[in-house]
Design the sequence.
């Protein structure tokens, strides 16, 4: 692996996101967040701080996830469509370097957009005097880990399907993993105990992106999540990213360009 | 045109004809199958969603706000009703403690995230319990519902046809049992009545607040009579909530007449109610109550209200 090739590739992805005005979309979404906050303020913010925080983290999670999926699902297919993949690979970088550089760039661009949206949300909430607790720092950290996992899944999907299908599947997976998990839990609870291992197996194979979202706890002013749990989630995120990058590489390494 | 295309076109025509003929006989089929009519309240709510995109947005937004309010009351712990299978298995619910709020206390729910004893997922389940808003909810209390009042105002402003928003918001306003709370609740319900003329739930709620907070039995009886009349018109088309409100209307109205000393009306209302709700013990008692026992001094405005049915 050529580590020196990864950063320039990642930087190109960020520059490309700026050039394509992706961040303008972020700015417009930020404006929508402000409008939401303004609508709440119209009905009186007293006693509504928890709702405002809930709305803030919900909108933040929604928009950042959409951006994560859209940014990462187009990286490789776009290079192929523009026929710029061959000139890239003609340089002294391997296919894995290319994948890793593109993935890191997608994650960094997503985190940049997330930071901008978080700043817009914070301004919107601070304007109404809504206080922030330390758990918000944990929320941001875990959300960033979750976004990295979502990027990895969308990135891998884009190598197996068309970019549009990858974006659709990516969003279904990102937003529906919690619902899927609940369905498996309900099904597992209602079936005989001997067959529960089957649901447990499926549950462990589907990435649980909802585990990285502690928005409910942050909005409700719950205590901090234990450090051991943050550590376990970091390991879990690394496992998802590793598995998805492996899948991507297995698909991409022998692919005709 | 190719032969295959012709075949495809003829199949499509046959399908279209079949659909058209099925559509033209749909009304007859409906009668034959005796499908229940759509509930009036829900119909009004859905009509708004079905007629325009704006209506759909309004309905979705009010429903979302309703769910968020429920989440807030449970401090963001997600709850769900028991499934039929769980009821059959005799699973215990995580009910609420009596915190003085009659409308949000009646619930038979469990947490969406299962307790460790019921979870087969191992470490993934443990992680979810640590990251989601989860705690043991047996005998749980609720967050202060008055903080959610702006949300009730917002959801009814967004969708004035959303009746539970009006009735629950009014119940929250009247919770503290002071004259100002009752005044605000009645004002809120009157706005709801303007948007939902002759709605049984709202009329019944107004009657309830008039009786329990203001002891104004005459005014309460007027509203409850309106609810009774609306119930007669819509009988058989009411959804579960409206039907329950109508049952309460008969109870409160009969009690009202008893305390006002109008025993004939008390018996008439109770007997009419029993005709609809044969298993209702309160109405049965009121219908059989010998007038001699209760022929005490005539109750009027300002006297003690009837006790809860």
Sequence:
């Amino acid at each position: 692996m050529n580590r020196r090739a990864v950063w320039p590739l990642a930087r190109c992805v960020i520059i490309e996101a700026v050039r394509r005005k992706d961040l303008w979309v972020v700015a417009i979404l930020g404006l929508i967040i402000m409008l939401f906050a303004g609508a709440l303020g119209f009905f009186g913010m007293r006693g509504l701080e928890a709702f405002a925080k809930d709305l803030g983290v919900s909108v933040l999670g929604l928009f950042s996830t959409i951006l994560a999926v859209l940014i990462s699902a187009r990286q490789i297919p776009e290079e192929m469509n523009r026929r710029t993949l061959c000139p890239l690979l003609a340089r002294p970088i391997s296919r894995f370097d290319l994948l890793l550089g593109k993935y890191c760039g997608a994650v960094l661009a997503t985190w940049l957009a997330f930071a901008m949206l978080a700043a817009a949300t914070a301004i919107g909430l601070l304007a109404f005097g809504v206080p922030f607790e330390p758990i918000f720092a944990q929320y941001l950290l875990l959300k960033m880990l979750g976004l990295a996992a979502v990027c990895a899944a969308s990135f891998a999907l884009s190598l197996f399907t068309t970019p549009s299908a990858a974006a659709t599947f990516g969003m279904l997976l990102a937003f529906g993993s919690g619902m899927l998990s609940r369905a498996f839990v309900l099904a597992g609870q209602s079936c005989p105990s001997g067959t529960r291992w089957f649901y447990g197996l499926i549950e462990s194979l589907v990435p649980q992106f909802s585990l990285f979202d502690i928005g409910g706890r942050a909005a409700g002013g719950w205590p901090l999540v234990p450090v051991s749990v943050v550590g376990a989630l970091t390991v879990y995120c690394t496992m998802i990213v590793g598995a998805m990058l492996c899948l991507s590489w297995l698909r991409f390494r022998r692919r005709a360009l | 045109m190719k032969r295959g295309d012709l075949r495809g076109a003829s199949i499509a025509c046959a399908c279209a004809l079949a659909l058209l003929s099925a559509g033209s006989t749909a009304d007859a089929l409906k009668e034959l199958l005796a499908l229940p009519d759509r509930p009036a309240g829900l119909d009004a709510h859905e009509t708004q969603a079905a007629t325009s995109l704006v209506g759909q947005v309004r309905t979705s937004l009010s429903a979302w706000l309703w769910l968020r309010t429920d989440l807030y009351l449970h401090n963001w712990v997600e709850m769900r009703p028991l499934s039929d299978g769980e009821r059959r298995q005799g699973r215990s619910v995580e009910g609420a403690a009596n915190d003085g709020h009659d409308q949000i206390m009646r619930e038979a729910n469990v947490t969406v995230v299962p307790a460790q004893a019921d979870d087969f997922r191992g470490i993934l389940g443990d992680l979810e319990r640590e990251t989601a808003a989860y705690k043991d909810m047996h005998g749980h209390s609720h967050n202060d519902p008055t903080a959610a009042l702006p949300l009730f105002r917002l959801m009814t402003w967004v969708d004035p046809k959303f009746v539970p928003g009006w009735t629950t918001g009014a119940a929250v306003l009247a919770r503290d049992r002071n004259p100002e709370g009752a005044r605000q609740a009645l004002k809120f319900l009157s706005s709801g009545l303007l948007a939902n003329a002759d709605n049984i739930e709202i009329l019944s709620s107004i009657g309830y607040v008039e009786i329990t907070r203001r002891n104004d039995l005459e005014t309460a009886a007027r509203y409850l009579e309106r609810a009774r009349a609306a119930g007669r018109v819509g009988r058989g088309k009411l959804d579960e909530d409206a039907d329950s409100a109508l049952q309460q209307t008969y109870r409160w109205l009969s009690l009202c007449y008893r305390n006002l000393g109008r025993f004939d009306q008390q018996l008439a209302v109770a007997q009419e109610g029993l005709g609809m709700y044969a298993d209702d013990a309160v109405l049965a008692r009121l219908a059989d109550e010998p007038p001699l026992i209760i022929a005490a001094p005539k109750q009027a405005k300002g006297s003690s209200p009837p006790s809860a049915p």
